[in-house]
Every structure is written in structure tokens, then in C-alpha cells.
């Protein structure tokens, strides 16, 4: 690993691999094929935009661990991991996006050659980077193997963050602080949406004097005017209007660790309905933050928020947050815990969440969110953006 | 569809759907489940960053067409498509990232209710957005259906661009022109990599006075110094050094249409090896561009380039380009044609490619690329960035 590309000591990667093997053993999984780029990075450090082709990290219960990917991406593995040369295993370029042959055919051959082809193999069946065809190819190439679904197995090992991980997330929090400072400096009616996003991306990438801004797993989402009802809409070149509100769903990112932070921005004097929702959401956030401590569950924290909203007459039928950390597109969530009533996961110190109490109506929406880490005394916020309806 | 969100006339979407149904019929596919967000957008206009949850467009051979997705994304479907309300079909939020239930279980129920559950169904088995688990859920829920792999079926219909699509790609070309102007204005030794990328993202999102810059399906790739050997590495906060080269793999984007354009930038007096490769690559580009005309094949264009490289003593064993157009992360390629020797696809007027003749060595790399469209007289470039080694 190139020293400037090192994010964690070798011992921390080793401990992550140990925990993963322990979880594998508990489920009788002898070999794990990890295609989720976040999991690949967490286990080994591997970091590059090569996930648009098939690649994986293979973890054996009894000590094997190798990276498998496209030939031209081997230099990225050398730069960003501690893997020895024999554990950087490549496939030739004619396997890329070919209708006739599949990189997973090739991996099956590698596993057979290494006498690993008859194991009980865990695969991440519900991940963006493990397609239905990848599963079929592996299965056809390894007739003697038994496959099981290990979606989320590594993700769950990531739930409780190390001190260094939390440090990266706080740095990401400082980055998103800079982003909102820039928004408040430059945003004004008559500006085009893409102009505002250009400023956001500039500030988010510049970061702070000592923390570079990395790319977010989700681009800045901006819903303005009637489009604020559409919570995952992206920008166009339309003008931002006076006497109009918009939500901004943004993140600061450092070394792939995310600190999302959403706010609503209003140009002009906000109408009563904005102030009413703001009041309910801020009280709901306060009531929930205190509950993010060990022993409580995700569901309890969520219910506190939903209860406050209901008291004020608002209904929310979607989850109000999810676990966060290291991530790659298309999602900055970890896809394990959700903040919703039926999630009974017990909170532990060091877990991190994007507590995301947005509400959307037929023709507008409102978001104020906080990224937090669980501590014995309740949530600690990872960023310090003023928690209020932003007005200019 | 909201008028400001309309990218194509209703007739163009109808024609795309007709072509898709024709291709389905030719392969005996009665129902097509389209999960690739690029294909969803091309068929209906649907455009939002909601592809991190399961969603699709379902196309029936005999006229059905509906969008299926998460409840909170229905407003995005209303804003960006012409679909009537009954064809915007949603699943409840507790299906999102749940280990116990899957959105595709729900879709199976919708198909059964609509008497579509016993058809011959095409699914995009090798797409990021159709996971192995999605395939299993559908299969379990539709025992009477027959499934086949329709990966690329819609992508292939997208290969020849309409006049309006080419106009969007040329606008994207003007956007990337602005990006390189900014790079040449501000890049200098001692700048941090993330500072340069901040400038790139700013210019790429600002676009031109009349074309907003949209987000690219791949973030700016910058390989500087020894990292230039790693072709998919992303930035960090390291300083850019004098007497050092870097590749920049960037795209201009407008309304989801991409115009990628790579260049190599050298700070100082480039050493001989840079000039030698530049000479070979520029001659190789010239020899290949003339061949991008109807009747020739992808392989012939690629061979012309490989032949020139070889003449100068360079070997390249990976493809030198791929078809491009409308795209979403993680790949701006269309995943149909590749510019490599064994691709025998015949070129047609209106096809568009990123002709990407990069070469990577053990400790450096060099890229000069052009996005082009096929015309009767050879390639027309979609952007006008000076085609040379950039030096500052």
C-alpha cells in the first residue's frame, strides 16, 4: 500500500478480517465472495472506481484472502491494499462486458485451481455488484459448491465504528459544514439550480485545509419549488425562485467516509406551514437524539420521532434513517439497520446513523437531518450545521 | 411530465417503446422487466437518484407499460414521465432494504394480479440493478413464468442516436470544453489533487450559458505521478508535482447524455517518452477516426489504432473504446459495443463511441480520447478540446 493511500493500520484490517471470519464460521460459511465495493474497501483498503466491472475480494475461513478483478485494475490494488502480488488475481480484458464469457466463469476456474471449489460459499445476493448472471456463472462453474446468501454479512461487521473511522466521519462533518457555509454565502433567488450545485460540489471537494473532500455516494439532491415533493430528483438548469423553498440533501465525505446532512432553504419569509413543520421536526429530533444510547433499539429512537410528529398531526410512513459509514455509489447507507418501528437492533456505542426525518407532501417537502454516533449519553452529532430552517 | 423536465417529445418515447417491443417479439419475449436506470429513462424519461432501491419499468409485448418503484419516488415519476397515474405502481417503504421481504416479491404479486404472471419474461440478468436475489424473488413468486436473459436488449436499441440525442451529446461536448478551459487556467504544480477536481466539478456542473452541466456516471479520474498507472484511481489530497504527468478522464454531461474526453497534462517540459507516446497515439487516432463510417466494424476501427501503436512498439491488450450516450452511475458506457478486434458489429450512422486509446505502463499512463459519432464520411468529434498532450 502506498503510504499516502493508507487509511488504517494493517492491524485494523486484520481485525476486520478476523471478525468477518468469525461471522462466517457462525453461519457455516467456508468461503465468502465479497462484491460490494464498500465491503471490499473495508476489508482490504481497495479503493478505485472499477466497480463498474465485476470484481471481488474472496475470503476463506482458514486464511485465504485475495482480490480478483480486471487486469488494468491490479495497479489500484497495489496502491491501496497490503495484498502480496500472488493475491492480486486478474482476468483478461476480453472478459469485460462480453455477451459470451463472464468474469465469474474465470473466478470459478481460479477457485477450482486453488481447491476452493467445493466449499460452502457465501455470496452477496442482494448487492448492486453481484448480478443475477454473476450468480448463474459461479453456480455453473462450481457444481460441487453449495451457495448461500451472505448479503449484509460484512456490512454488519461494519456497524460499530473504530475510533479512527469516527475521526474520518467527523472530518466529513467538517467538510459538510464548509458546504453549508458556502450555500449560505452564495445562494440567492435567480440563481440556476446547477449553479448552486456547482458551488456545493466545489466546497465539498475542496473540504477543509487539512481534510480533502472525497466524492459522495449520492450526488447533491435538490428539490426546489413543486419538485420538493420528489425526494430523489436531481438538478437541472431551472432558476431558483423567490418565496420558494427547497430541500438540500448533501454529504461531506473524507476518505470514503460520509457525513450526510440535509437542510431546507427558503428564499423570502417562510410561510406558516414551513414554520409549523420546522417546529415539529426540531422537537422530534430532540426527543429522538437522547435515545441513541446503548440498550435502546433502532425502533425506539424512530418511534420517539414518529410520536412527536404525530402529536403535531403529521404522518410519516417511511423510515427516518439508516446506518452510515464507508460507502460507494449508488447509496451512502450501509444497508443494515433502518430507523423504523420494526427494527429491533440494539444500539451500541460507536454505531453511526443518518437520522433523516424528512417529510414530503403533495407539492412540497421539508428535511432537517443529522448524522450521529451513538454514545453512552445519547447521540453525538458528527457535524455542526445550524439545525434550523435556513432562510435567505 | 413537467414541461421543464421534458427531454424528448412523446412521439420519440413511443418510437423507442415500439422498437423495444419489436426486439422483444424477435426473441419471443412477452414481458420485459427493465431495471437498468439508463434503459428506464430512455424508454419513459424517468430520471432520479432512486436506483439505489429496487425499481423497474415493465414492458408488455401487447401494450402494457408501467413504472414500479418505492412509494416516495412516485412524485419523480410524475415529474419526469408521461405515464398515467395507474401506471405508476408503488411498493410500501417497509420493503426497502429488509432482510425478510423483497420488492420483487411485491412485483410478482402485481404481475399475477394483472394476469401477466405466466408469460415468457425477459430480465436484465447482468445489470447492477438486477441482483441475484431479485431474480430469485421473481422466480419464486412467478412459478408459471419462463425467464430468459434480456441483458442489453434495450441497450442495443439505444445504439443509433436520434438527432435530438446527438444534439444533447454535442451540448455535453461544449460542457467538457469548458472544463478543460478551466483546467488550463487554474492547474499548477503545488495544487492539491482535490483542489483541481473541485475546479473540474465546478466547471462541469456550471456548463455553458445555455446548457446546464449534469452529473457524470463516473467521477473525474485523475492519476498523477506514479498513480497514473492505476487507471481507475480517484483523487486524494496529495500535491500535484512539477515535472510530473497526470491523466484526466472527464466527461461533460447534459440531460444525462455524456461526452467523455480524456487528456494527459504535464507540468514542466515533458520527457521524451511522453512525446513518443503522444506521437503514436495521435497517429493512431487519425488512422482510426476515418474508419468510423457505415459498413466498417468496431473491430476494424480498433485494429487500425492497435496497428499504429504496434508499429511504434507499443502493445495494448485492453479495448480502446465503447458505445456511449445516456447513462447513470457506475458506468457511462452503454455496455453493448466495444472497440476491440473481435467485435464484429457493423457501424451505422448515428452510433456514438468513446474512442479511448489510453495506455498504461508500470509507473505511468497516457490518455488522449475522443467521443465521436459515426457519419458517412467517418467520425465526427462531439467536443473540440485541443487534441494533444497538455503542458503547463
Describe what you observe in this structure.
Two copies of one chain form a homodimer. Chain A is an alpha+beta fold and 392 residues long. The first copy, chain A, is 33% helix and 21% strand. Chain A contains ten helices and 17 strands. The first copy, chain A, has helices at residues 10-26, 37-44, 74-80, 103-113, 132-141, 153-157, 163-186, 193-206, 272-289, 298-311, and strands at 31-34, 56-60, 65-70, 88-91, 120-123, 146-149, 221-224, 244-254, 257-267, 321-324, 333-338, 352-355, 359-360, 365-366, 370-375, 378-381, 390-391. In chain A, the strands form four sheets. Chain A has a six-stranded mixed beta sheet. Chain A has a five-stranded antiparallel beta sheet with strand order 11-10-12-15-16. In chain A, a hairpin with an 8-residue loop joins strand 10 (321-324) and strand 11 (333-338). In chain A, helix 4 packs parallel to helix 5 (132-141). The mean pLDDT of chain A is 96.
